[in-house]
Design a protein that fits this description.
Largest sheet: 8 strands, parallel, barrel
Structural class: alpha/beta
Number of helices: 15
Strand content: 5-15%
Strand order of the largest sheet: 1-2-3-4-5-6-8-9
Number of domains: 2
CATH architecture of the largest domain: Alpha-Beta Barrel
CATH topology of the largest domain: TIM Barrel
Number of strands: 11
CATH superfamily of the largest domain: Aldolase class I
C-alpha cells in the first residue's frame, strides 16, 4: 500500500511507474506491455501519421483493457483530429513534450482525459498548472533527448513544492531505490524512457540495444548540434562530426534528411517551409539549426528503426551507464516494486531502531 500514490488513482494503474513516449521506440507493443504489467504505457504519436496512430491505438486495446496514454506534439497540423481520436477511443492520458494551449487542455479535461506535459523548470510547472493540466512530468538534466540543465534532485522538490497537481520525476531513474527517492522528494511516482527502451519488448534493434548497454555514465553528451536545442545523446562519431561542422555543412546535411522525413510522413513541402519560417521567426536559431530541427526525427529513426548508428543518433538518459540487462517489461516492473518495498522496509527498520 505504501506504493499506491495519487498518480495511481488518477491514471487507474497499479504502480506509480510511467513509460514515456519515445519517438520511434514507444510503439504499441512496448506501450501495451507496460500497461499490462501495471504501469502506464505511453504511445509515441509524434512520428506516426493519423492512420498509423489509429492502428496503434487499436493494437494496444486488443492487448489490454488497462489504461494507457498517447504522447502528442501540440503543434502538429492535424492535432484537432488527433485529440478527437483520443477522445473517441477512450485513451486515458494525453501527454505532451510541450504543453498544449488552454483550449486543448479544457477540451481534453471535459472529455475525461488526463493531460500531462513534461517540464524542466519550476516556472513552467506553475504556468501549466494555471492552464489546468492534471499532472506533470518534471524531467531533470540527466534525462534523455531534449532536456534542461537543472538536476532531478533539485528540480523535483522545487516543482513539487510549487504545484498542487501530482508530479512524476524523470531523469536518472531505473530501479526501486530511485522510486523511493522520488517519493521522498515529493513526487507521486517516476517516468522512465531509457530503462524501458532497454527491455525485450522495445522494438529497437538488438545490436543498437547492445551499443546502449556498453555506454558508460560518462558516454553521453548534451548537444545543440542536432536541432539547436539541448539534447542528451550517446557520444558517437556522427554526433562529434555534427558538433565540429560549420553552419553550411549542417545545412546541406540536414536538407537531405528533411526531404526524407517529408517523403516518409507525407508532410507537404509548403507546410515544412512554413514551420521552418515560424521556427526562424520565433527563436534565435540559425538557418542550419532550423533545417536540423526539421530533420532531427530522421536521425533518430536511422538508429532506432533502421539500426544504422553510423548515420543516426542515440537519444538516452545518463542512467544508461547503470543498465546492464534487458528484462521483459513485467520483470522490470516487478523488480522495481520489490526493491522499492524492501527499501521502504529497511528505512522503517532504521526508524524503529533509532526510536
Amino acid at each position: 500500500m505504501s506504493l499506491h500514490t495519487p498518480i495511481c488513482d488518477l491514471f487507474g494503474v497499479r504502480y506509480p511507474i510511467v513509460q514515456t513516449g519515445m519517438g520511434w521506440v514507444s510503439g504499441s507493443r512496448l506501450t501495451a506491455a507496460t500497461s499490462k504489467a501495471g504501469g502506464l504505457g505511453i504511445l509515441a504519436a509524434a512520428t506516426l501519421d493519423y492512420g498509423e496512430l489509429e492502428t496503434a491505438i487499436g493494437e494496444i486495446k486488443a492487448e489490454t483493457d488497462n489504461p494507457f496514454g498517447v504522447n502528442l506534439r501540440a503543434d502538429q497540423p492535424d492535432i484537432d483530429a488527433r485529440l478527437d481520436l483520443l477522445i473517441r477511443e477512450g485513451v486515458k492520458v494525453a501527454s505532451f513534450a510541450r504543453a498544449p494551449g488552454k483550449g486543448a487542455i479544457a477540451r481534453l479535461k471535459e472529455a475525461g482525459l488526463v493531460t500531462m506535459p513534461t517540464i524542466g523548470l519550476q516556472k513552467h510547472a506553475r504556468k501549466v498548472q494555471e492552464w489546468g493540466v492534471d499532472a506533470l512530468i518534471a524531467q531533470g538534466g540527466e534525462g534523455g533527448g531534449h532536456t534542461g540543465s537543472v538536476p532531478t534532485s533539485l528540480l523535483l522538490p522545487q516543482v513539487c513544492e510549487s504545484v498542487q497537481v501530482p508530479v512524476l520525476g524523470a531523469g536518472g531513474f531505473r530501479d526501486g531505490r530511485g522510486l523511493v527517492a522520488a517519493l521522498a522528494l515529493g513526487a507521486s511516482g517516476i517516468a522512465m524512457g531509457t530503462r524501458f527502451l532497454l527491455t525485450q519488448e522495445s522494438s529497437v534493434p538488438e545490436h543498437i540495444k547492445a551499443q546502449y548497454l556498453k555506454t558508460p555514465v560518462t558516454g553521453t553528451v548534451v548537444t545543440t548540434a542536432i536541432d539547436g536545442y539541448p539534447q542528451r545523446v550517446v557520444r558517437t562519431p556522427i554526433v562529434q562530426r555534427l558538433e565540429r561542422s560549420g553552419p553550411l555543412g549542417k545545412l546541406f546535411a540536414s536538407i537531405g534528411h528533411a526531404l526524407s522525413f517529408r517523403a516518409l510522413t507525407g508532410t507537404p513541402l509548403g507546410l515544412m517551409v512554413r514551420e521552418a519560417l515560424a521556427m526562424k521567426k520565433g527563436g534565435r536559431m540559425t538557418w542550419s539549426e532550423v533545417a536540423m530541427a526539421a530533420n532531427a526525427p530522421m536521425l533518430t529513426r536511422a538508429s532506432m528503426v533502421e539500426g544504422n548508428a553510423d548515420v543516426g543518433i542515440l537519444p538516452t538518459g545518463q542512467v544508461v551507464g547503470l543498465i546492464d540487462e534487458l528484462p521483459t517489461v513485467e520483470q522490470l516492473l516487478q523488480s522495481i516494486v520489490r526493491e522499492a518495498e524492501d527499501t521502504l522496509s529497511a528505512l522503517a527498520q532504521l526508524h524503529t531502531e533509532a526510536a
